[in-house]
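User: Reviewer 2 asked us to show a designed sequence for the structure in our supplementary figure. I'm pasting the structure tokens here. Could you produce the per-position amino acids so we can include them in the response letter?
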């Protein structure tokens, strides 16, 4: 698997079906009758990584290698010509992938009972990504994903509930809803529905401990959904992509929003959810980005006070409108701007975390590491996506604890905390932190 959370959700879904039909999922290509690589095309590097994974699967002895996903959809013949690749299935046929491979009907798959299990070689995860929507109706000029995944279409409620049931049966404590254009869920139904309708329906399931949303485009964000955050199971974290703080660049990107509209949306969200963690995506080095445009982005990030953000250097992708735009930015300038924005996000992220020092927040422990003295070193996330490191007398992996947050962590972008009020000076073993996800 290469790429986004959607790819991860899909590959785990394939594995669930294969297991339910009596097949075994193995960790190495050399032991496999079939290796499936879910490719990505979002950047030049992602496409290269996809080809590398496909070559490796063939080289290491998989009996058959199947390429699917965004890069394979855009370059099916190139994928098929790679050594060892025996079949390519495009994104438009991905929902039928297992049925096609095994020569069975979708009706048989529909009758199966699933239990989510981590893929071999993966660390067991406390979160499960549930794909609820596919494709995109936007036309951002830098993006290949909309070409690879087609128009927006939504999964039906019954299928979504089935996937959630499998995740909960497998022990997941947090459900993350994901899609290419998540905010467009349900629009194309004969009787249109909205993301708010989806959330209301999912939250009826009292077995769900935490429900988190992945990225939502700002123009797709329906403010009426904010009333649902009265339910504490909804995680107080929203990822709203920005891409640029310059109206001129946003127009070149064909993103249908202005900087002012974006800022107003952020302000309205904070009015309803005061402690919400707001994170975003930004692209540096887009064709024609002047120093003035870059400074506008810099100032917006600093003034907005994001809890974090992803910074991407523009990656020229053939078949996108931006590929042939004039005034390309020198790679070194784009990388320098990227580094500058990362520094700003690091600072705003720390400022955001700081407001929770001396507070008690629930933490879902995602990783645990045994210490020589019999204690456990834990790493987990709050509802608002603050990383917390603490020590415990017991292994609390995949459990939720009330944690007193007492200081910035000395080595990581995290807060240190204690679980037991009787132990206010935990002896934390930082050398083990590299085992954490």
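Assistant: Here is a per-position design you can include in the supplement:
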């Amino acid at each position: 698997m290469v790429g986004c959370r959607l790819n991860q959700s899909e590959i785990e879904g394939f594995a669930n079906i294969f297991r339910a039909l009596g097949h075994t999922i193995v960790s190495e290509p050399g032991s496999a009758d079939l290796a499936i690589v879910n490719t990505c095309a979002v950047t030049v590097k992602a496409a290269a990584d996809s080809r590398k994974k496909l070559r490796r699967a063939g080289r290491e002895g998989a009996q058959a290698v199947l390429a699917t996903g965004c890069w394979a959809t855009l370059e099916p013949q190139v994928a098929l010509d790679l050594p060892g690749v025996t079949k390519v299935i495009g994104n438009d046929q991905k929902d039928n992938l297992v049925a096609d491979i095994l020569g069975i009907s979708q009706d048989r798959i529909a009758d199966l009972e699933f239990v989510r299990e981590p893929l071999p070689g993966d660390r067991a995860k406390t979160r499960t990504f549930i794909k609820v929507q596919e494709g995109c109706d936007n036309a951002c000029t830098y993006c290949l994903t909309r070409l690879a995944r087609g128009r927006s279409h939504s999964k039906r409620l019954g299928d979504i509930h089935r996937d959630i049931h499998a995740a909960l049966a497998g022990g997941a404590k947090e459900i993350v809803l994901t899609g290419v254009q998540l905010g467009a869920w349900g629009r194309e139904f004969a009787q249109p529905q909205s993301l708010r309708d989806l959330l209301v329906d999912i939250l009826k399931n009292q077995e769900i401990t935490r429900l988190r949303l992945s990225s939502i485009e700002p123009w797709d964000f329906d403010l009426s959904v904010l009333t649902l955050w009265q339910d504490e199971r909804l995680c107080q974290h929203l990822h709203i992509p920005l891409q640029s703080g310059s109206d001129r660049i946003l127009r070149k990107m064909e993103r249908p929003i202005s900087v002012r509209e974006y800022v107003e949306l952020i302000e309205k969200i904070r009015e309803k959810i005061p402690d919400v963690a707001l994170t975003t995506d930004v692209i540096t080095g887009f064709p024609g980005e002047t120093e003035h445009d870059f400074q506008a982005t810099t100032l917006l990030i600093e003034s907005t006070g994001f809890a974090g953000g992803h910074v991407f250097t523009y990656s020229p992708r053939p078949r996108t409108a931006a590929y042939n735009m004039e005034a390309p930015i020198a790679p070194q300038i784009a990388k320098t701007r990227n580094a500058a924005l990362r520094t700003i996000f690091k600072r705003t992220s720390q400022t955001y975390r700081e407001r929770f020092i001396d507070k008690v927040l629930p933490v879902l422990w995602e990783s645990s590491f045994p210490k020589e003295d019999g204690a456990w070193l834990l790493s987990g996330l709050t509802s608002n996506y603050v990383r917390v490191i603490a020590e415990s007398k017991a292994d609390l992996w995949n459990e939720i604890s009330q944690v007193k947050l007492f200081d910035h962590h000395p080595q990581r972008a995290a807060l240190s905390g204690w679980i037991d009020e009787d132990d206010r000076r935990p002896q934390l073993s930082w050398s083990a932190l590299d085992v954490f996800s």
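For the response letter, you might also mention the following. Residues 424-437 have pLDDT under 50 and may be disordered. The first strand starts at residue 35 and ends at 39.
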